[in-house]
Amino acid sequence: MSSSGVAGAWPEEGPLAPKLDALRAEIECVGRAVVAFSGGADSALVAWVATEVLGPDRVLCVTAVSPSLAPEELADCRALAGEWDLRWRTVSTEELDDPRYSVNDGDRCYHCKASLLAALTPWAEAESAVVLLGVNLDDLGDHRPGQRAAAERGARFPLVSAGLTKDDVRSVSRQLGLRTWDKPAAACLASRLPYGTPVTLGTLNTVAAAESALRALGFGQLRVRHYGDLARIELPAGDLEGAVARRDDVVAAVRGAGYRYVTLDLEGFRSGNLNLALTGARHDGGVGPDATPVTP
User: Which of 61, 188, 64, 37 has the alpha carbon at shortest distance from 119?
Assistant: First the structure.
């Protein structure tokens, strides 16, 4: 049993052992850390390893709270902090007050991360610490301008430095006994809006309500893409048949959140697929021929 109350042992051999050693070394060298803690598999691993390596007195885990954070994610961050004895707090971010963010162009994530770092920097300065983000090696291949904003402001990506991919993060987390090892990815709620659709408090609340209602039906990994009064639901391919079988429940759940039309995307769940619009690829904001209506 570790000092953070999690069962599991450090992998001392195998293909991932050198990467974990590199992660520990990367974190140890910073001395003190403020971890941007969203509760996902990546930031959870960074938070847990940092607390193990540096000790809770030298690690502050901070969750940024804004309308773009799903309520379930905030609740899980609070639960994880208690389970793992993390030194944890929340800070509010004000990205919705920035018109460069709310206009929702291709640089939205840049302005979001800039707001995050603006909120974390005072804490890092007070702690004489370095800000650590849970970015893995696979993330570098997607359109994520937020990484540039964070790097420009001195944040570090220890998972990248250690050469850890998303699969590596999940494998290591499982070996360490972290329950986040198979947690579905949960990007900010603004990522559900096609570029060019303004980000508003009302829209984010509608998306959050629809996704919460679908999770209550037992669907885990999902996205509700927002197109005005139409919702396009993305689920893993293995869940599509079940969603059709529970058509009435799915429709009621999503309509209850405020949507008029409910569609199911036959291509299934694809993290970050709205980024394809930035390269002129398909899914450029229209519903597309592959979105099958499940409305009555």
Answer: 64
* pLDDT tens-digit readout, 16-34: 899 999 999 999 999 999 9
Q: What 3-state class would DSSP assign to 226? A: strand
> What is the spatial distance between Cα 290 and Cα 171, in angstroms, rounded to a whole number?
33
Contacts (Cβ under 8 Å, ≥6 apart) of 204: 67, 68, 189, 190
Cα–Cα dist 240/31, whole Å: 47
Where are the alpha helices (H) located in 128-236, listed in sequence order? 145-152, 158-161, 166-176, 201-216
Q: Tell me if the pTM is above 0.90.
A: no
Strands 130-132 and 261-265: unpaired
Q: How do strand 261-265 and strand 230-234 relate by DSSP bridges?
A: parallel
Largest CA distance in the chain: 59
Beta-strand relationship, 130-132 and 230-234: unpaired
Candidates 256, 254, 278; CA nearest to 265 is: 254
CA distance 125 to 131: 10
